[in-house]
Amino acid sequence: MKKFLIVSSIVFCIGCNTQKESAEEAVFEKELSEHVNPMIGTSKMGHVFPGATVPFGMVQLSPQTNFEVMFKEGKYNTKTYEYCAGYQYKDSTIIGFAHTNFSGTGHSDLGDLLVMPTVGKLILDPIRTKENTKGFYSKFSHDREEAKAGYYKVDLEDYNIKAELTATERVGFHQYTFPKSEESRILLDLVYNVYHHENKNVWTFLRVENDTLVTGYRQTKGWARTKKVFFAISFSKPFKSYGHKKYDQETYDGFYRRFKQDENFPEMAGKNIRAYFNFNTKEGEKIKLKFALSSVSTDGALKNMQAEITDWDFDKTKKQAKDKWNKELSKIEVETIEESQKEVFYTALYHTMLSPILYEDVDGNYRGLDQNIHNSKGFTNYTIFSLWDTYRALHPLFNIIQQERNNDMVKSMLAHQEESVHNMLPIWSHYANENWCMIGYHATSVIADAVVKNVGDFDKKKALLASVETANVSYFDGLGDYIKYKYVPDDKSHSSVSKTLELAYDDWTIAQIANNVGDASTEKVFLERSEYYKNVFNKENGYMSPKLSDGTFRKNFDPLDTHGQGFIEGNAWNYGLYVPHQLDKMVEMMGGKKRFSLRLDSLFTMELDDKYIAKHEDITRDGIIGNYVHGNEPGHHIPYLYNWTGDDYKTQERVRMIMDTMYGPGVEGLCGNDDAGQMSAWYIFSSLGFYPVVPGSDKYALGSPLVKKAIINLENGKKLTISTENQSKENVYVSSLTINGKRIDRNYILHQELMNGGEFIFTMSDTPKN
């Protein structure tokens, strides 16, 4: 009898477990890509693109919408700035589909290799012809437009053509459904660039290999001062004829001069070229293009094409792209209070995986910073490091859900440093170029965060040496004066206070690397440097303030002004609170916990006059709460600073308010440009209930989780479940937290607690915890 009871109990328990697993499967679906809406952030200053790509893919194949200011040669203004990703939702015309695009950056470049299908008379000018007639653009309607993870579709109304796009890592796959016509064609515009100006193109070259294969390259000098993109195009159907037009006055000696530039000569060269390929099409006939990229050579592009798409099955490649997104998105499975929040969450997670991007061919060859060809050995090479933005939350997020990739990204940074004539780690790098954008040397933060959290197998001593060398390049952006004066003097460098604060933090991260590898002398040097922030704190006014080389603080200082007051993209009220590595000391310096908490209250509730932000492209009303600017990165840690004052509940209030008001499911669902995923990474962390206020430490500050439940599928094979009890829109306060059954009476969690897996249970309430 006892045996029967035991067996029955076992059977009953198995049944319970099966029911539990079935219920869990019902909650956590696997087709998570269906919740991604690439249109979120395509309006105004979100600066994201809606086109087709795969996670961290080299190809970002996306529509470019018409705005004539983009084609006014040499002009740069705020309207141009709106087109950093080549697309604005307000537009109603498309000029074609480009293969490289930034996602959510504060500067424009790329837009390489524009393809446009047309029907009818040959027109080679995109906007207006010399005769002032319509260019080759087409009208489109958002009602006939569809954007999903890895797929984009739109009807080109002027030509009755359905355009569909998908991609692999290195190949864009086009499918165009044509009407019946003897004047169907595909244009290849090698003139177009995002942020076009007349001298951006250095050289273009096109070679017709046969009637289905074209190869070539283009070199530009935009934000990336010397960028080469090689390509190979394979057509699913032979073209019946082809031609091109050259838009520059260059002449050539030898054989080429005997041919008119618009004849069917198989080699085309010049600064600015547009080519065309003609077809006869039946009603509903599909013409497909496989468009492969390489930074190395046309041969590399061909190898990439042959390796990644072996047939002409567009739907198969589309499904493979979707599957890749489902795999990456399933690293965090969530249940939300409202269904719309799931769309916001997974679109944000999607945005965190659009850069950095893969930057090597299938054989591991890539173009390095020195413009030579290298082969990645023991790592995969990546590019697009917007580090002033992404060290704050994006790379810390990778240290939880993308550890293998982040290891490769660190190794890519170390390779960059070896290839640099300056011996510097990347500052803001893309496409084998350093553009020196923004301040500080935040690759050290990315490295330190990985070191402290034991992520990756990169050489830590080599990483320390690279960091130290970077931190001692005296001619870099005020660094020599920073070392000499122990702050950046305002009369010797712009943005002096911001630079001092960021450099001091970066120096602290180098000390953390040194501590980890047992280099006590280097640790001591950089811990001392990490306190240089104290030298720009003005006790008289209570603000971080611009200081002159004679040791006096600058007069006529306005702490509200974002222009010329020693700060960049911020003011003393918000950027002046940037001492993440010594927050306790900063709070004490600024009057103690009670006074600092009130200061934060004022920051969120005061009114900021328009004059203070009028000339800032990166700061708009959409992203401001009082004087707190969520639409820009320097303040992303600020809502969590109440945790250092004893008023944790205020962090919980602010964080939930920001998630509710600064993010949304519509095209205007980003309150500022996404900055290569940083804005979205903030939302992912905050939704889960914690945030890396201090990258380079193993602690995460607690906030207020927005999810009802989340499962993080860790690369070490473990699962972390985050559950909330009494979760609702009103219950924003955390009354208790348990980790694997143990009550936690602190306002932070440790990285190892995440990596151990198990269950976090937040108990929520509508009243603050006593």
UniProtKB/TrEMBL annotation:
Residue ranges occupied by any Glycosyl hydrolase family domain in the UniProt entry: 301-765
UniProt entry tagged with the keyword rRNA-binding: no
Entry keyword rRNA-binding: no
Pfam family, any one: Glyco_hydro_92N
Single GO term (MF): hydrolase activity
Gene3D superfamilies per record: 2.70.98.10, alpha-1,2-mannosidase, alpha-1,2-mannosidases domains, GH92 mannosidase domain
Names of required cofactors: Ca(2+)
Keywords: Calcium, Hydrolase
SUPFAM superfamilies: Six-hairpin glycosidases
UniProt domain Glycosyl hydrolase family 92 N-terminal: residue ranges: 35-294
PANTHER family tied to this protein: PEPTIDE N-GLYCANASE PNGASE -RELATED (PTHR12143), SECRETED PROTEIN (PTHR12143:SF39)
NCBIfam families (alphabetical): aman2_put
Quaternary structure and interacting proteins, as annotated: Monomer.
Name of this protein: GH92 family glycosyl hydrolase
